[in-house]
Amino acid sequence: MEKEAKKEAFRKYLASSGVLDALTKVLVALYEENEKPASAIEFIQHQLGGPTVSEYEKLQAEKADLQLKYDELLAAQRDTSRELEELRNSQQTSAGSKDSDIANRETLKDGGF
Fold first, then answer.
1. How distant, in Å, are the alpha carbons of 8, 11, 15, 23 from that of 3?
2. Higher pLDDT, 25 or 53
3. 26, 48 contact by CB (below 8 A)
């Protein structure tokens, strides 16, 4: 009994969400095709708005290419950020040593050793 109740609840869910109507329309369109497509699954996917298998594979390849480019750009950005940080640190270090040189010179001018 519980299994039947679950099935009925699922049927109601499919009907209320419009899935049954959408599938019925697609199956009727497939039935009314004069020349049946080689792949009924691809026909159904296309009718429901999804990509065909070849479109999907093309999109997957494009995604892989874009992921590679993204990874390369991210690595380049990290390298550039690291270089920038090193330059900042070296400037601060050289600025600090310049300040101490200037202070030492002023001390010498004032008669200190």
1. 9, 12, 18, 24
2. 25
3. yes
Tell me what the pLDDT averaged over the chain comes to: 88
Phi-psi region for residue 71, left (φ > 0), alpha (ψ -120 to 50) or beta?
alpha
Radius of gyration of the chain (CA): 35
CA dihedral 50, 52, 55, 57 (to 10 degrees): 110
Q: Tell me how far apart the alpha carbons of residues 33 and 39 are, in angstroms, rounded to a whole number.
A: 13
Give the pLDDT of residue 102: 65
pLDDT in tens, 47-58: 998 887 788 899
Contacts of 86 (CB under 8 A, 6+ apart): none
| Nearest Cα to Cα of residue 103 among 91, 94, 112 | 112
